[in-house]
Amino acid sequence: MRILVLHGPNLNLLGRREPGIYGRKTLAGINRELEEAAEELGVELRIVQSNHEGELVDEIQKAREDCAGILINPAAYTHSSVALRDALAAVALPAVEVHLSNIYAREEFRRKSLTAPVVLGQISGFGADGYLWGLRALVKKIREARAENG
Ligand code: CA2
């Protein structure tokens, strides 16, 4: 089983700026932890970071061909992108949304997620751990659904 991990705009800067909000881990460090968890869970990951909305949409569409689910931090596009929301809804793959910070405890404009209504669930405010919990939750949901459907 393959899972697409999608990191949105500016997450490539992690660890270098604003550690008070986003923590000290770099994106490479988070990806390493995800790969370790994936090995433990017996799943394969395709990890992509992009600063471009259209590329993120392309990746979501491609996932329909060869992925069982999507773990996504849409970053700033969470609050603005109808295109990402539509892509997630269109592929209809099980997805989990992750945020390093608690988006509901920040500026007003971050308190609305356009993508949350089209994913299984959201984890927000637990730093890099949220990605690991999100991956576990996603794989569990996919396996449960497969078991139910024979
Ligand atoms: O808390 C999160 O994970 C966010 O998705 C991060 C986004 C932000 O726009 C969302 O509201 C919440 C920002 C990602 C940019 O990360 C940076 C990392 C270091 C320095 C500057 C930005």
The quaternary structure here is single chain
Domain tally: 1
- Which CATH class? Alpha Beta
State the strand order across the main sheet: 2-1-3-4-5
CATH topology type: Rossmann fold
What does this structure look like?
42% of the residues lie in helices and 17% in strands. It has a single domain, classed as Rossmann fold (3-Layer(aba) Sandwich). Helix 4 links the parallel strand 3 and strand 4. A five-stranded parallel sheet has the order 2-1-3-4-5, with helices on both faces. Helix 2 runs parallel beside helix 5. It is built from five helices and five strands. The two termini are 16 Å apart. With 150 residues, the chain is α/β, with parallel strands linked by helices. The site of ligand CA2 has 16 residues, from loops.
In short:
The chain has 150 residues and is an alpha/beta fold. The chain is 42% helix and 17% strand. It has helices spanning 19-22, 27-41, 53-66, 82-91, 129-148, and strands spanning 2-7, 44-49, 69-73, 95-99, 121-124.
List keywords for this structure.
alpha/beta, 5 helices, five-stranded parallel β-sheet, 150 residues, Rossmann fold, binds ligand CA2
Helix/strand layout:
Layout: E1 2-7, H1 19-22, H2 27-41, E2 44-49, H3 53-66, E3 69-73, H4 82-91, E4 95-99, E5 121-124, H5 129-148
Parallel strand pairs: 1-2, 1-3, 3-4, 4-5
Helix pairs in contact: 2-5, 3-4
Bound molecules: ligand CA2.
